[in-house]
Amino acid sequence: MTAVALPLATACTSDTRPDTGKKASESMPPAPVAAVVAPAKVEVIAKLTGCEVTIRTDAEELREGVCHTADGDYLITTFPQERYKRIWLDSAAVYGGRYLVGNKWVITAPPKLQESLRQKVGGSFEDLNDHSAQS
């Protein structure tokens, strides 16, 4: 079980509500899709987005995987430290564009995929054309 899933599994173990006797699933609306709140591996993010990733870079300062899907292709890059992510984004500013950014990870995707990926993994958008973060 991953570190992200463990707190969810622990918090959601009760099946009945003590005040009504109803099962929790009968009395509560479905939870929204959970976002990745902790740094994750390329493979974990890829699984959340529904792709089988191919690792193309496995270096000390970053790991990068390529996802090919029917909706389009995108890159998932993870970093061992936040400072490496900042260096990477500073370098990517030369190319401009909008990136989906999380804690120690970046997804590079075509605009048509960005919002659906954000709904699956969380994060915020960073527009490197004007160097400001957007939510």
How would you characterize this protein structure?
Helices cover 30% and strands 24% of the residues. With 135 residues, it is of the alpha+beta class. The protein has a seven-stranded antiparallel β-sheet, with helices on one face.
Whole-number tally of structural domains = 1
Order of helices and strands: HHHEEEHEEHEE
Number of DSSP E strands: 7
Q: Describe the biggest sheet?
A: 7 strands, antiparallel
Mean model confidence by pLDDT: 79
Poorly predicted sequence stretches spanning 5 or more consecutive residues: 1-17, 22-32, 131-135
Architecture per CATH nomenclature, i.e. the level-2 architecture: 2-Layer Sandwich
Percentage of residues in strands: 15-25%
Give the CATH topology: Phosphorylase Kinase, domain 1
Q: What does the radius of gyration come to?
A: 17 Å
Q: How many helical stretches?
A: 5
Helix content: 25-40%
Order of strands across the main sheet: 1-2-3-5-4-6-7
- Helix/strand-derived category reads alpha+beta
CATH class division = Alpha Beta
Distance between the termini: 29 Å
What is the 3D form?
A: globular
